[in-house]
């Protein structure tokens, strides 16, 4: 028996043929207007919903889908899916936790290096045609307020994070946090703490 999937996600068109080729009937509703229309016209036929965190699926929408068995969330977040309503109906909710962990880990390390080495300011300075050759050492301000980077000899900064996929961040990159908001915030706080605690000699 053919299963019908309501597709709310607007970024997975390249993968939809995989579903079609495996016998699924797809209803594309990738705008709010199409979403309302699809639920109103085809609600009794829909077995599954493909969505993402910010799009979610609400309790009143689930109520209009009597055959709904599963809500598949693309990505880690499922913040706009009404979990209580789904649980009350016995509807399974899945997500893609960790699907992009390696990419986020790369970005986390890039943020850490940019903050610690003051790369954005150095980049802006270079684009202005400047060439500040004096580099600050051990977090101390270089002469003329031309701070290009910083270094903390003997230090191995690490930040402990919580969350299902967050780990420690170290300069050796042996452990990398996979939560972008958490790591960006933690790196900035760590940088501010280190620069404020190391006073110039």
Can you list the strand order of the major beta sheet?
A: 2-1-3-4-5
How far is the N terminus from the C terminus? 77 Å
Order of SSEs, N→C?
EHEHEHEHEHHEEH
Radius of gyration: 24 Å
Structural class by SSE content: alpha/beta
* Major β-sheet profile: 5 strands, parallel
How would you describe the shape? elongated
Beta-strand level of the residues, as a percent range?
A: 5-15%
What is the number of E strands? Answer: 7
Individual helix count: 7
Ranges where pLDDT stays below 50 over 5 or more residues in a row are 137-178
The percentage helix is 25-40%
Mean pLDDT: 76
How would you describe this protein?
The chain is an alpha/beta fold and 201 residues long. The chain is 36% helix and 12% strand. It contains seven helices and seven strands. The protein has helices at residues 16-21, 32-42, 59-63, 83-89, 101-116, 119-127, 180-197, and strands at 4-7, 25-28, 48-52, 70-74, 92-94, 158-159, 169-170. It has a five-stranded parallel sheet with strand order 2-1-3-4-5. Strands 6-7 form a two-stranded antiparallel ribbon. The protein is elongated, with a radius of gyration of 24 Å.
């Amino acid at each position: 028996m053919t299963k019908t999937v309501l597709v709310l996600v607007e970024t997975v068109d390249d993968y939809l043929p995989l579903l079609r080729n495996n016998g699924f009937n797809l209803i594309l509703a990738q705008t709010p207007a199409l979403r309302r229309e699809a639920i109103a016209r085809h609600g009794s036929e829909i077995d599954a919903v493909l969505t993402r965190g910010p799009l979610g699926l609400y309790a009143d929408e689930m109520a209009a889908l009597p055959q709904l068995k599963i809500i598949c969330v693309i990505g880690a977040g499922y913040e706009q899916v009404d979990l209580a309503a789904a649980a009350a109906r016995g509807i399974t909710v899945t997500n893609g936790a960790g699907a992009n962990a390696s990419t986020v880990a790369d970005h986390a390390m890039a943020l850490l290096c940019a903050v610690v080495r003051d790369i954005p300011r150095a980049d802006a300075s270079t684009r202005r045609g400047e060439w500040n050759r004096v580099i600050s050492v051990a977090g101390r301000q270089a002469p003329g307020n031309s701070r290009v980077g910083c270094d903390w000899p003997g230090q191995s900064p690490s930040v402990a994070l919580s969350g299902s996929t967050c780990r420690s961040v170290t300069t050796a990159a042996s452990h990398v946090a996979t939560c972008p908001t958490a790591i960006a915030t933690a790196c900035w706080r760590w940088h501010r703490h280190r620069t404020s605690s190391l006073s110039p000699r």
